[in-house]
Each structure stands twice: as structure tokens, then as C-alpha cells.
């Protein structure tokens, strides 16, 4: 029987992954986290996002595999964010450790958000610089809000504020919320990209929450919906 290399199994082009990442992708495959890495969804300066397949009985489930690039990541910026998070006070300024902690932090934040009842992708596994999570969408991934404006903007904004409130009372601030990382799935918001999210007791959490509110209200103002940031802040914080 011919040996299938990890590069062939994951259909990757030469040079896409370093050897360390390639080995860990193979390990995740061996553990049954996904069966096949099939196509790139997003290629960025700091991370690459792929669609993977997982066979579940007679059905095939699509999953998202997010890989932080160890050589390209701005680990100095990551460190400035993560060192304020009390969960990572121990962290030293070493590139690999920061990138691994950054990926783990996104995994933990998604779990915490899910427990709070926030509409976020279900996470399946974290390993070093790799995060595997649910793909939001049907046959194709749901598009971000910036690319798919809601049919009823005011209703959609109210749903986002409701999710932000659940997140806040669940102990988290998203910290990077915008129309880029809110998916519009069947006219319902799903929050993604939680690597910058931090716990409410972080010293700069109030600043981050106010920035999230400002970003969202600016977007919806262009759609004709006006809200005062102070009112939304009170709404999110009230019991």
C-alpha cells in the first residue's frame, strides 16, 4: 500500500506550512478532529484559515481550521494585548510561547462565550498554533456582516447588543468587534475571532467594550440606524 504523505493528505502547496505545523495537522487528523483539509478560506498576514471535512456517519461536516503563522505573526502586538489578561500574567516574551498562548486564549474565550449562551462557533480542538472550530453556514461559509447587510438593520443591531450583553455578563469583552467579525447567518449574528477577547476584570476592558460599541454603531449608522453609545453601554451592563 502506498504511503500518503501529510502534504498529499492535506492538499497543501509546498511552503504553506512549516514542518512543526504540518506534523500537528497530521496529529489532529490522526485523532479524528478532521478527515481532510480541502481549501483555503482566508489567507492573512498572521493566520491562514482553511475549510476541512469531517465524516459523521452518512453526513460530511465542514469545519474551520485556523493556523497562526509562527514566522509572520506580530508577536509584539500579541504580547501587549495578552499580558494585560490576568489569565496570562505568567507569560514571558518568547515568540512561540506567545503565539501558542494566543491560540489557546481564543479557544478558551470561545468556550467561555458558548457557556454564556453567545452565538459563536463551537470549538473542537486547540493544539499549539492550530484551532479547529465549527463552520458557520450551510453549504458555504456564512459571510461577514460587512459583505451581507441585514434586511432589517435595527432588528439585527438589537440582536448584536443582546449577544454583547450575554458575553459581558458571562465575563468577557470581545475587544475587536466590528462588521468584519460578525457573521450574518440567516439574518442572525454569530460572533467570531475571539483572540483579542479578554475577561471583564482586565484593566482595559471598559475601554475595549466602549470601542466595540463605537465600531458597531458606526457601521449601523451607515444603514440608517442611530443609537447613542452611552445608552447601549448601559443596556449591556444592566442585569
Strand content: 15-25%
Going across the major beta sheet, what is the strand order?
1-2-3-5-4
Whole-number tally of structural domains: 2
CATH architecture of the largest domain: 2-Layer Sandwich
List the total number of helices.
7
The arrangement of helices and strands along the chain is: HHEEEHHEEHEEEEHH
What would you report as the Rg, rounded to the nearest angstrom? 19 Å
The largest sheet is: 5 strands, antiparallel
Q: Mean pLDDT, as a whole number?
A: 91
Reading off the top of the CATH hierarchy, the class of the largest domain is best stated as Alpha Beta
Q: Total number of β-strand segments?
A: 9
SSE layout and pairing:
Blueprint: H1 6-9, H2 19-30, E1 36-43, E2 47-56, E3 59-68, H3 75-82, H4 95-115, E4 123-127, E5 130-134, H5 153-169, E6 172-173, E7 182-185, E8 188-191, E9 198-199, H6 205-221, H7 229-237
Antiparallel strand pairs: 1-2, 2-3, 3-5, 4-5, 6-9, 7-8
Helix pairs in contact: 3-4, 5-7
